[in-house]
Structure formats: C-alpha cells, structure tokens
C-alpha cells in the first residue's frame, strides 16, 4: 500500500503526515508513506486544497487535516 | 413604532455582542481593583486595552470562525471551479471575487488552486480575482471590522475589496498575459476529484477543526497586533504618528502601503493596529491601506506565485494590486467623514 501526503510544507500538511504515520503504526499495516511537495505532482491529482491524502493513487481527502482516528477508519474500511 | 424598537434592538446587539461594552467595563474593574492601576495612566490604559481587546477578539473569532466555516463547507474549491466554468467575461471575475470571500482557503493552497483553475480552462484574470479577494475580504474580518469601527466602514471595505479584485483580474485578462504563465500549468492533466457531500455531523466536525487550525495559526499575530495597538494607544505620542501617517500628509498612504506589503501577518493581527492608528488621528484610508497591503500581498505569497507565473506577469499583478490599494487609501481618506 502506498500512501501519499500531498502538501507543500505548511503546518497543516506536516500535521497530516504525522497523523498518517500514527494511524499506520497503530493499525500495524505495511504501508509506504510518501510526502509529495512538488506543485506539479500535487496538481496532477486534481487536488486544489492542501493537505490531501492519496491511498494507492486514489484521492481520499483534500483540504482537511484528518485526525489519526479518521485515517484509521479509511484504512480499515 | 416597531421600527424604533428594531433600531434600539440592533443598537443594543451592536453594543453588547460586537463592541462588548460589558467586557470593556469588566476589564476596567479588573484593572482598577486587582492591578490597582489608574485607567487614565499609560500603564493602566495599555493593560486595559490589551486584555479587553485580546479577549474580545478571541471570543468573536471563535464564534465567527465556527459559523463561517460551516457556511464555507458548502463551498469547497472544487465546486467553485465548476461554478466559475459556466461564466465568462466580467461576470466570471465578479463571481470569482465573491466566491473567493467564502471559499475556505489556506494560502499554501494558492498554487495548487491556481494550477487547478487554470488547467480547467478558467481565464487567469478570473483566477487572480479569486486569489486577490480571498485573503483581502474574509467573512470573519468583515465582522471584526464592524466591531472595531462600524458597519458602514465594513461594508465599504468589502465593496472596495471586491471591486479591486474584479478590476485587477479584468485588467490582467485584457492584457493577454497568458503567455507568462509557466507552461506546465496548462499541460496539467486534470483529474476531477469526486466531492462527496458532507453530512451535518461532518460539517460540524469540519468547522471545529477549522476553528482549532485557525486559532493555532493566528493567536500569536493577535497578541502581537494587540500589543502594538496598545503601545500606539498609550505610549507613542500622537504628534509622531500624525507626522508620519497623518491624514493631511500626502505620503501617509504610500508609507502605509510600503510598510504593509512586504510584511506577512494575519488580518486579525492588523485590525487592532488599524484601530489604534485611526484613534490616534491616522486617516481611515491610510489604516485600511496598511491592512490591505499586509493581507493581499506578502513576500511568502509572491515567492510562491513565482513558481507558476513568470516575472512579467507577477510584476503586473503586484503593480496593479499595489496601485489599487493606494487608490483605495486615498479614496477612504477623502470620504471617511461620510463613514465615521
């Protein structure tokens, strides 16, 4: 599973990455977490509000800092 | 008869919800009895102003941001993009400026947003109208402005901000500067992200989240802004302020804009400074020009825009907005007697 956190470095984006790592750790799944900061790459997903979360190339959330709980729900569901 | 009652009610609401006279008096009592300071002394006056203004701003901010985020949850950028796609010409610019006011928007999203709008086919003038009105005219600050000054000024500020955004965007479109956008922006392949409708519970959670995020971002700016405001109120002599920024000085607007533009601060931090300046005899237009300079343009946002737009277009953008702000400053200075 490849999880990408899209964001160009403002605090919200950093927090989403932290929450994502926490969620993955707590569930204990095998997942590679990549931070994407390049604007072109971010835009290529059709994302306009950062931060955004992409799981296996599918955009699951944009414009929100999901809490670890929410991320866990998405990963498990 | 009912008209009189309504007016009375509105005036009461204005005094107690917005200006919070009860809070003003409460803090005055606090300063006098617990700190033992005379309200008329510099220290007493400053501390009173500081405590009162900080609490007032935070209360208003919390209520406002929650309510406004709820409204904004209906206007994600993706929906704005779809709406704007169906309009053209100056209507599109006007809509973009209006939507910029209600779309929740973190400035780090400005680049992906620019790319998203542009590659979807929206003319760059329309995108710029959006990008200018977004930080400039903000629902929460409109209400804070009304609480600090009055509704007429707040309404005038909104009107002027939107007009500025529309004109700047239209000029940019007319100048046909599309060739100065970095090519990769146009060749971006657009994936239409499916926006699921939020349930009420999700909207509430979103609003609470936004409230937390925004407070975390701005609390320091507010404290600093109120601190500077308190200093201006009570320590910096009026003579110095009017010498540099006085209403009759033709250069006051230019200085305000020159100081404001490179700075980055949240609009909520600039409001107490604007209030203190006006109180000390600075022209309303000068104070507003300072506020607009700080919020509409800033070094960080210009640096970010540089990545998607070439220097020529960037210069035109900065130039038009600066000119607009200066004109607004002079306008408000000349007509402030009508508003205050």
The class by helix and strand makeup of chain B works out as mainly alpha
CATH C-level category of chain A: Alpha Beta
- Please give the largest β-sheet of chain A: 4 strands, mixed
> How many domains, in number, for the residues of chain B?
1
Number of strands of chain B: 0
**Strand percentage of chain A:** 15-25%
* Proportion of helical residues of chain B: over 70%
Q: What ranges of chain A have pLDDT less than 50 throughout 5 or more consecutive residues?
A: none
Keywords:
heterodimer, A: 77 residues, alpha+beta, Glutaredoxin, four-stranded mixed β-sheet, 3 helices, 4 strands, 25% strand, globular, B: 340 residues, mainly alpha, 17 helices, 0% strand
Report on the architecture of this protein.
The complex is a heterodimer of chains A (77) and B (340). Chain A has 77 residues and is of the alpha+beta class. Chain A has a single domain, classed as 3-Layer(aba) Sandwich (Glutaredoxin), CATH 3.40.30.10. In chain A, 42% of the residues lie in helices and 25% in strands. In chain A, strands 2-1-3-4 form a 4-stranded mixed beta sheet. In chain A, helix 1 (11-27) crosses helix 3 (68-76). The radius of gyration of chain A is 11 Å and the shape is globular. The model of chain A has no long low-confidence stretch (mean pLDDT 84). Chain B is mostly helical and 340 residues long. Chain B has one domain. In chain B, helix 3 (42-72) packs antiparallel against helix 11 (200-234) and helix 5 crosses helix 9. The model of chain B has no long low-confidence stretch (mean pLDDT 81).
